[in-house]
Specification:
With 157 residues, this protein is an alpha+beta fold. The chain is built from five helices and five strands, in the order H-E-E-E-H-E-E-H-H-H.
Length: 157
């Protein structure tokens, strides 16, 4: 299969069997998941994905805010665990896959952000995905924090 196949949405497949995606965090109630990126520009790149098969730009603002809140929690944790030399980069991209998703890239050199857009990407092995999962798996306290913030947001809308 080519790197990108417009007829196949891997994120919808991820929701059918989240455990097979080496999840870092899953919230079934709010339909959000953090998983290692199978086609990263940099090591330990992750994705925040939602359950809806809708491009990010077409989601209601409240849903975008939920996704970005989880992305912020994840990026803060990635900074703490990975200690990249630069901040975690965010990319809301999705012209090839219909399901809304946010890429989080640990950046160590200025070009790491550019690699996302023009760099060579290679498919991660199962072992590499598992390594990212193990390294970044949300501890219980962080799972609770994420759940609480998502609940607070839901109560506002």
């Amino acid at each position: 299969m080519a790197l990108y196949d417009a007829t196949f949405d891997p994120f919808q497949e991820a929701w059918k069997n989240p455990a097979a995606q080496f999840p870092i965090f899953v919230d079934e109630e709010y339909g959000l998941m953090v998983i290692p990126d199978a086609l990263p520009a940099v090591d330990h790149q992750v994705l925040v994905i939602c359950r809806e098969q809708t491009p990010y730009q077409e989601l209601p603002a409240s849903r975008q805010l939920q996704m970005m809140t989880l992305a912020n929690i994840t990026a803060e944790y990635m900074d703490k665990v990975l200690k990249p030399k630069r901040k975690i980069g965010y990319a809301v991209w999705g012209n090839q896959i219909k399901t809304a998703h946010i890429h989080l890239l640990p950046r160590n050199v200025p070009d790491d952000g550019i690699k996302f857009f023009v760099g060579e990407k290679s498919r991660q092995t199962q072992q590499q995905l598992k390594e990212t999962q193990k390294l970044l798996n949300f501890p219980i306290a962080l799972q609770r924090k994420a759940k609480k913030q998502l609940e607070e947001l839901a109560s506002k809308f």
